[in-house]
Task: inverse folding
């Protein structure tokens, strides 16, 4: 095996590994753009705030656990577990891991609305959360 053969195999292996590794270093803006693209329409922060603060298909709203203005820690409505601030400006780790974001949207939307959120709903809520500044 020549040196160039080895180099080509090493590069191909690294490219294959990169292709299967999950994306982790997203930004809230990246996620918002993706949700808005999936929805086929721009996000509306006002709709996001209304969705977040209004009781939906179940007994809770998002604000039941995350507070009406999620710039501070919240508390889970049934377990009492502390939940870190949801607004990205107050918690820089929020909305940076797409897999975690999807996991929690799936769980929380089911808890609040008895169904998964649509991409438009995710975009609207995230757009509103991004407007909350210190």
Result:
């Amino acid at each position: 095996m020549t040196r160039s053969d080895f180099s080509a195999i090493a590069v191909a292996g690294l490219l294959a590994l990169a292709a299967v590794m999950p994306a982790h270093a997203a930004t809230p803006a990246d996620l918002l753009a993706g949700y808005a693209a999936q929805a086929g329409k721009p996000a509306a922060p006002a709709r996001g705030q209304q969705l977040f603060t209004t009781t939906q298909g179940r007994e809770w709203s998002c604000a039941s656990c995350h507070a009406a203005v999620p710039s501070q820690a919240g508390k889970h409505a049934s377990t009492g577990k502390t939940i870190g601030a949801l607004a990205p400006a107050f918690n820089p780790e929020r909305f940076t891991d797409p897999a975690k974001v999807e996991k929690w949207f799936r769980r929380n939307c089911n808890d609040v609305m008895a169904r998964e959120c649509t991409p438009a709903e995710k975009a609207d809520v995230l757009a509103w959360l991004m407007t909350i500044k210190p």
Notes: The longest strand covers residues 74-75. The domain at 26-131 is CATH 1.10.760.10 (Cytochrome Bc1 Complex; Chain D, domain 2). The chain has six helices and two strands.
